[in-house]
Amino acid sequence: MKTADKRTLRTRTRLREALIDLLMAKDYESITIRDITQRAGVGYATFFRHYASKDDLLVDAFQESVAQLESLLQAMGTSGSPAEEGRLIFEHVAAHHDLYRVFLRGEGTQSLVDEALREGVKELVMTYARYTPSIPAAILANHVVASVIALVKWWLRNDMPFPPERMGEIYARMIIEPVETLLHA
């Protein structure tokens, strides 16, 4: 049973990586399932044992990327500054920029972006709930997550004009530091 689980994980990983590789060279709409399976080195029918469509694979790739980012941020813990946290976010986005560009365009992916927003807000509300700021924790959390998504979108749409280090500083100054000031007021 464990062999099948490992094989399934390996196949899904190869399909996600193939999609991401193809996104570097081609526009999402022009990528076919046959392109993906050939790049991944798996059979065409195998694709459908794991995903119902190319869009399902895209969703899985995005969720996996977000999970990797969350893991990186958790590993950093509270030891990093807001600017370091922001740098880490933008380095991750830069490493997966084609995937994030497709995803944040909103063409058929808006519901997943909305879900990521809801999940991010839910996590931050728990963090902010221990404070008693003049603005409710749910509103602050929504502001932070929506602002981060907007900043990432801007950066990607403008061809990443600043390095991740600078974007981390901007993230800290524009988003995190003002909210921390509100939380500690």
Describe the fold and architecture.
The chain has 185 residues and is mostly helical. It has 2 domains: 1-51, Arc Repressor Mutant, subunit A (Orthogonal Bundle), CATH 1.10.10.60; 58-183, Orthogonal Bundle (Tetracycline Repressor, domain 2). It contains 9 helices and no strands. It has helices spanning 2-25, 33-40, 44-50, 54-76, 82-95, 97-104, 110-128, 137-157, 164-183. α1 packs across α4 (54-76) and α7 crosses α8.
Helix content: over 70%
Fraction of residues in β-strands: under 5%
Alpha carbon gap, first and last residue: 55 Å
**Quaternary class:** single chain
CATH class of the largest domain: Mainly Alpha
Please give the largest β-sheet.
Answer: none
Annotated CATH topology of the largest domain: Tetracycline Repressor, domain 2
Q: What is the H-and-E element order?
A: HHHHHHHHH
Would you tell me the structural class of the helices and strands? Answer: mainly alpha
Instruction: Assign an overall shape.
Output: elongated
Rg over CA atoms: 18 Å
Low-confidence parts, pLDDT < 50 over ≥5 residues? none
Average predicted local confidence, pLDDT: 87
Known CATH architecture of the largest domain: Orthogonal Bundle
Number of strands: 0
Count of individual helical segments? 9
How many structural units, i.e. domains? 2
